[in-house]
């Protein structure tokens, strides 16, 4: 099963938009997703604070930065 990390934080409207894309794709593709709130660790805020939402394919360490669309996520999943 494909595994993603979704770097986000509370109150991020772009993250909410990305979440809608991910929800839609989760109905069509099989993948596991860990949601990581960057506000919980200072190093994550430093790394992703200006870039969220960010998706990371855990298997190949490839990242997808906003703005992304359905096709970008599918490509990240390597389907």
What is the CA-CA span between the terminal residues? Answer: 11 Å
The count of strands amounts to: 4
Report the order of strands and helices. EHEHEEH
- Strand order within the widest sheet? 2-1-3-4
Rg (CA only): 12 Å
The CATH superfamily appears as Glutaredoxin
Q: What general form does the structure show?
A: globular
Number of domains: 1
CATH class: Alpha Beta
Percent in strands: 25-35%
Q: Write down the CATH topology.
A: Glutaredoxin
Q: Summarize the biggest pleated sheet.
A: 4 strands, mixed
Q: From the 3D coordinates, which CATH architecture would you assign?
A: 3-Layer(aba) Sandwich
Helix content: 25-40%
Structural class: alpha+beta
Total helical segments:
3
Task: Please state the average pLDDT score.
Answer: 96
Which stretches of 5+ consecutive residues score pLDDT under 50? none
Overview of the molecule:
The chain has 79 residues and is an alpha+beta fold. It has one domain: Glutaredoxin (3-Layer(aba) Sandwich), CATH 3.40.30. Helices cover 37% and strands 28% of the residues. It has helices at residues 13-26, 42-48, 70-77; strands at 2-8, 31-37, 54-57, 62-65. The chain has a four-stranded mixed beta sheet, covered by helices on one side. Helix 1 (13-26) links the parallel strand 1 and strand 2. It is globular. The model has no long low-confidence stretch (mean pLDDT 96).
């Amino acid at each position: 099963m494909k595994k993603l990390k979704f770097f986000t934080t509370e109150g991020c409207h772009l993250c909410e938009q990305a979440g809608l894309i991910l929800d839609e794709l989760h109905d069509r593709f099989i993948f596991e997703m860990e949601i990581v709130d960057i506000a919980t660790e200072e190093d994550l805020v430093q790394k992703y604070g200006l870039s969220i939402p960010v998706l990371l394919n855990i298997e190949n360490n490839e990242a997808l930065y906003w703005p992304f669309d359905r096709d970008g996520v599918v490509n990240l999943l390597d389907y």
